[in-house]
Amino acid sequence: MPDALSHRIETRRDALIALTQALIRIPTLNPPGQHYREICDLLQARLAARGFDTTLIRAEGAPGDSDRYPRWNLVARHEGPRPGPCVHFNSHHDVVELGAGWTRDPFAADLEGDRIYGRGACDMKGGLAASVIAVEAFLDQHPGYCGAIELSATADEETGGYGGVAHLAQQGWFAPERVQHVIIPEPLDKHRICLGHRGGWWAEIETKGEIAHGSMPFLGDCAVRHMGAVLSAFEEHLFPAMAQRRTDMPVVPEGARSSTMNINSIHGGQPDHHDGLPAHCVPDSCRIVIDRRFLMEETVEGVRAEIVALLEDLKTRRPDFDYELRELNRVLPSMTDRTAPVVTTVAAAITEMLGVDPSYVASPGSYDQKHIDRIGRLKNCIAYGPGVLELAHKPDEWIGVTDMLDSARVMGRSLEKILLA
Ligand SMILES: [Zn+2]
Question: What single DSSP character describes residue 279?
Fold first, then answer.
């Protein structure tokens, strides 16, 4: 015999499917960041009709914001009749590009058996829909609750969240006196609580050379060969050192429990897309972009210093070696304590609703928790939502209806634990 709130959620199965489909059918592709206003309007109309105070916020001046592609966000707040804490569900409404390999229409949101297919189904319109249904069922079941509930739909998570959660946090929307608990329904799987994520440091390194005729390279200085020396130093020293480091963060997959670095791109010499044969020149510049992911146990200063030390060492050993390093972006790791109230509450709700002990994970890449933590100064934040993480950003992405219902029941039970006196 299910509890009353679970029963209410189960009876909303069709409404949940319809809402998920409606969200997927608005193609909020980022880049460029399109149809953001449309998806915010859809949710605003729905939640305003349920008695939410709704605010549309454009992140004017944020990276990517323009009159053509305005960065729209929605915050909706419902106050209970009695005072108490506020629980906030934050979902990003943008989706990544399609890529090749789709066998279904990515914006048709077709239901096949238990699955709804489409770009953003799993990451994370399914989670957004599940949280809306959970909240609506909770309000019907417990109209006299204590505290407040907020739902937000925010822009640009897929490109760093600067036009979304970062902007809202700067404006005070996540100030601890307004919001006490945050749940981000990213697709981490209905049995898992995601406590946080690793840090990231992005930089461009340029090696310098001197142009000369390609038939007499000894009269110039080849920047690509200098970059080869940089890459060798990485292979010899940096990659082995990073592989040795292990974090206490429960990062999944296992390989991401060490420090990692991707070399995003490399380019030297003349542009690689042009017609005809290349002119014969020694390249005087070579650039790489690196994507260094780091652990709670490391510092961003240490990450940078380690790379600078290798470059400086090359300067002393290698004739005419010179470089420039330009930092592109940095994101600090975030990790919510396992004893934080939102963690213990959702953990207990998973056990009660799904009959299993939750597992605790951390994300190899970052998500909007970083802004809620650093800018909003709110530590009581997790990611919890339906969906298979490995499907995110893939072709034929889907979300399971049963998974959405189960996680909605966990969200609803969590609201009961926090908001019923
Ligand atoms: Zn996501």
Answer: P
- What's the number of domains the chain is made of? 2
Nearest to 294 by CA among 255, 244, 336, 247: 247
Residue 386 has a CB neighbour count (10 Å cut-off) of 29
pTM for the full predicted model: 0.91
From ligand 1's centre to the CA of 184, what distance in Å? 9
- 386 CA distance to ligand 1 middle (Å): 11
The per-residue pLDDT for range 79-107, each reduced to its tens digit, is: 999 999 999 999 999 999 999 999 999 99
pLDDT tens, residue by residue, 112-150: 999 999 999 999 999 999 999 999 999 999 999 999 999
Domain carrying residue 241? 199-331
Rounded to the nearest whole angstrom, what is the distance from the C-alpha of residue 158 to the centroid of ligand 1? Answer: 7
Under 8 Å CB-to-CB from 247, ≥6 apart: which residues? 198, 257, 258, 295, 296, 297
Residues 53 and 135 in one domain: yes
- The CATH number for 50's domain is 3.40.630.10
